[in-house]
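Fold this sequence, please.
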Amino acid sequence: MNWYLQAAASVQQDIIEQALAHQLTLTKPPGALGALEDVAVKLAGLQGVKNPQLERIYISVFAGDHGIAQQGVSAFPQAVTTEMVKNFASGGAAISVLARQLKAQFEVVNLGTVFAVEAHPHIIDARIAAGTQDFSQQSAMDDTQLQLALSAGCAAAERAQQHHSQLFIGGEMGIGNTSSASALAAARLNLPARQLVGMGTGISAAQLPLKVKLIDEALALHVSREPLEQLQALGGFEIVGLVGAYIRCAQLGIPVLVDGFISSVAALMAVAINDSLAPWLLFSHESAEPGHQKVLAALAAQPLLNLGMRLGEGSGAALVVSLLQSALALHNEMATFAEANVSEKEG
């Protein structure tokens, strides 16, 4: 059996029940903290302890270029992928700032930039090729490349385990990757491209019809309903890396906090490959990309925030960590009715 088909770790239902019971004893009306209660209880079950902690965060940003970018589907040139990889590593990008704020372990995994990237302590060189092929004309990658990208994601999850991480965040960078993600979502959800395609990095209104047309052509060319074949035909190395990381994290018992549209499409594909990982996914925010709502609905996901973000990189997820930490502090530190000598609800 391929590693990515092996079952995810079990969620401890007895701990969930204990955490739920504990919530009912705290000095507040039941449910008064809304989703904060739900996420605290879920993390208790995932960590297997009634009082979960969130101190060790692991962030991997996967980078790769896309052949479809040569068709003019992005507002930025492909050189930006390489330039942003350097910016991540040197600490100047949004996710780099947030990782420092969280004191998180941070790495950039280069799976396939067109241009060379100099060695750096924060960059892992796992370069498969100089970007994918143009998926509107042929498959984005071959099977060997697909397996290498999945394995690179698996390796990131295993590094997170080595650091005893309590939460994994996957980010992505790749000029053209909203086109790839939109194509994958359209293929997986059996929807026309126009229902999923957005402005990405800020393309003009004139560029949008071209983006829709190219994706529709790709959907007509690649008709498989099998998720691994869809990833091979339409995906990007960084999206496949996220898929591998999500699956392996779930197998290792590491909760995953999913970022925005592209990361959610990776989650959609990961669940299609191995649905046992679904309980290990938490969803941080709903992005401004129009297709994100549809992907979240397909995953029955309830993101914690909607801030109108569409940056990617894992930035929305990193912002939500402090919210999760507050949820756990409330769960762990609030007094019970008995401890505070407060009268409980009558009847």
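Strands lie at 57-64, 105-112, 123-125, 167-173, 256-258, 281-283. The chain has two domains: 3-52+330-340, 57-321.
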